[in-house]
């Protein structure tokens, strides 16, 4: 496994792989890797010959007062686990190499970037789209792997690729959860022991939505309200949002016709967690 820090080095390595007829995959990360990230690396390895993993804590997707400085970083650990997984290249650029000092051009995420996470973090998705588009340009991968845990991000990246004719296939991968249902996240490390126990309320709320739908409930407003009630039953949890939305447009549903996506964001102390789940409609017998 090679660790490369410059754009030119990565482009050269990928070009050499392509000359050998290899299919190239990219797994963009911000490091502090856990099994959720590693599941993306494994999925990439299964579908491509040459796997590039980027580790870059992107400052442009953090807003004022957010946790950019405190975001977990453990490069030594990350390199060790990626070597064990068989990644071919780890791209670890500096901020100065990724962004010119006078850089002003950004990528607008469009209307999908204004709702849910975008409403709470107004500059977040412009930062995400900008850095992801840069990584796509630098690596030139055939496939790019993203986790469904950041579901809104996944939909925005897919739309960006479609609308801007970026020649890469975006692959979404299932959420990886702890044994008690909590979605794996680098920010879980912020939680106190008490907050960690309380954090399972996100999964309980999602399962409440799933159970109602499978029991035949069609009213999306009823399902969403049940999710909110579940969150509000946990004293340590503060609800940002919980709703049942169209899986593609992310617009709130009134009726569950086929599938919906339950989306949720909760604060536990100073930590903000997000999660989501596919909610299928139970077909009537």
Descriptive notes:
- Strand 3, helix 3 and strand 4 form a beta-alpha-beta unit.
- This protein starts with a strand and ends in a 5-residue tail after the last strand.
- The protein is α/β, with parallel strands linked by helices and 285 residues long.
- The strands form two sheets. A six-stranded parallel beta sheet has the order 1-4-3-2-5-6, sandwiched between helices.
- Helices cover 38% and strands 20% of the residues.
In short:
This protein is of the alpha/beta class and 285 residues long. It contains ten helices and nine strands.
Q: How much helix, percentage-wise, in residues?
A: 25-40%
The biggest sheet amounts to: 6 strands, parallel
The general outline is: globular
Taking Cα atoms only, what radius of gyration do you get, to the nearest Å?
A: 19 Å
Task: Measure the end-to-end span.
Answer: 54 Å
Looking across the biggest beta sheet, what order are the strands in? 1-4-3-2-5-6
Q: Could you tell me the mean pLDDT? A: 97
Number of helical elements: 10
| Unreliable parts | none
Strand content: 15-25%
Strand element count: 9
Secondary-structure element series: EHEHEHEHHHEHEHHHEEE
User: What structural class do you assign from the helix and strand content?
Assistant: alpha/beta
Task: Based on the model shown, name its key terms.
6-stranded parallel β-sheet, alpha/beta, 20% strand, 285 residues, 9 strands, single chain, 3-stranded antiparallel β-sheet, 10 helices, globular, 38% helix
Write the layout of secondary structure elements.
Blueprint: E1 2-4, H1 7-19, E2 24-29, H2 35-47, E3 50-55, H3 75-85, E4 89-91, H4 95-98, H5 117-120, H6 124-139, E5 143-147, H7 151-163, E6 169-173, H8 193-198, H9 201-214, H10 220-232, E7 237-245, E8 259-268, E9 271-280
Parallel strand pairs: 1-4, 2-3, 2-5, 3-4, 5-6
Antiparallel strand pairs: 7-8, 8-9
Helix pairs in contact: 6-7, 9-10
């Amino acid at each position: 496994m090679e660790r490369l820090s410059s754009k030119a080095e990565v482009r050269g390595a990928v070009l050499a792989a392509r000359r050998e007829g290899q299919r190239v995959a990219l797994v963009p990360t911000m490091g502090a890797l856990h099994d959720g990230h590693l599941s993306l690396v494994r999925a990439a390895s299964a579908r491509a010959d040459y796997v590039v993993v980027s580790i870059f804590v992107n400052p442009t997707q953090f807003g004022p007062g957010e946790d950019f400085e405190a975001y977990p970083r453990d490069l030594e650990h990350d390199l060790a686990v990626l070597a064990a997984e068989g990644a071919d290249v780890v791209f670890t650029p500096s901020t100065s190499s990724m962004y010119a000092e006078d850089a002003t051009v950004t990528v607008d995420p469009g209307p999908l970037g204004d709702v849910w996470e975008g409403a709470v973090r107004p500059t977040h998705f412009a930062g995400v789209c900008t850095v992801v588009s840069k990584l796509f340009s630098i690596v030139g991968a055939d496939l790019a792997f993203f986790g469904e845990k950041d579901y809104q991000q996944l939909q925005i990246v897919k739309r960006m690729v479609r609308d801007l004719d970026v020649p890469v296939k975006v692959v979404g991968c299932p959420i990886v959860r702890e044994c008690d249902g909590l979605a794996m996240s680098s920010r879980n490390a912020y939680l106190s022991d008490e907050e960690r126990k309380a954090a399972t309320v996100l999964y309980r709320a999602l399962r409440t939505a799933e159970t109602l739908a499978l029991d035949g409930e069609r009213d999306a407003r009823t399902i969403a309200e049940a999710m909110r009630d579940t969150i509000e039953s946990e004293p340590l949890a503060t609800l940002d949002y919980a709703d049942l939305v169209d899986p593609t447009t992310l617009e709130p549903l009134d009726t569950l016709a086929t599938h919906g996506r339950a989306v949720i964001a909760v604060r536990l102390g100073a930590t903000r967690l997000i999660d989501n789940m596919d909610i299928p409609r139970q077909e009537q017998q």
